Amino acid sequence: MKKLLLLLMMGIFGLGCSQQAPKVLKTGFSEEALNQKLEDEEGKSISIQQILDQHKGKVVVIDFWAGWCRDCLKALPKAKELEEHNKNIDFVFLSLDRSKEGFDKNLERFEMKDKENYWFATGWKNDFNNYVDLNWIPRYMVIDQKSAIAKYYAISPEDPEIQAAIDQLLK
């Protein structure tokens, strides 16, 4: 009986902690979200708007990740495959590592130095992450050529809707 109760409680806890898709799938960003500051690898401040402006006219995949996130690390090989399969797409990696030292160490450790990386120095709770309903990582978004959101919510690089969104935008 104790084992059954324990299994039931673990199941309820697991459901309560699992990632839930947002009820509203947004297609654009708020001004507050666009003004959110991150840091690049050199520690320079940059806004989401500035990052998107650098990619205007291109399809972008945003990958939210952290070196401490077991699910993110398990997804890295498939994320790399997605990137290799879409060489004409820009990939931007937004780190939720807990410190600048951790961010730098994890870029090196997971061979991410050759990618476009930014770090949320403000932590998990900020205007951008709150706006995009970030409740778990990894998380993937596809941004179109005009900086609108084409695919709002994917939790795996293997989600076929990511590739479908990319293919649709490149037609």
Key words describing this protein structure:
40% helix; 171 residues; 7 helices; two-stranded antiparallel sheet; alpha/beta; five-stranded mixed beta sheet
Arithmetic mean pLDDT: 91
Strand content: 15-25%
Span of the ends, CA to CA: 58 Å
Helical amount: 25-40%
Using the CA coordinates, give the radius of gyration: 17 Å
Work out the oligomeric state of the chains in this entry. single chain
Compute the number of helices: 7
Largest sheet: 5 strands, mixed
Low-confidence residue ranges: 11-17
Bulk shape = globular
Number of strands: 7
Q: Give, in order, the helices and strands.
A: HHEEHEHEHEHEEH
Q: What can you see in these coordinates?
A:
- This protein is of the alpha/beta class.
- The protein is 40% helix and 19% strand.
- It has helices at 2-17, 31-34, 48-54, 70-85, 100-109, 127-131, 160-169; strands at residues 37-39, 45-47, 60-65, 90-95, 116-119, 139-143, 149-154.
- The protein has a five-stranded mixed sheet, covered by helices on one side. It has a two-stranded antiparallel ribbon with strand order 1-2.
- Strand 1 and strand 2 form a beta hairpin.
- It is globular and about 40 Å long.
- The termini are far apart.
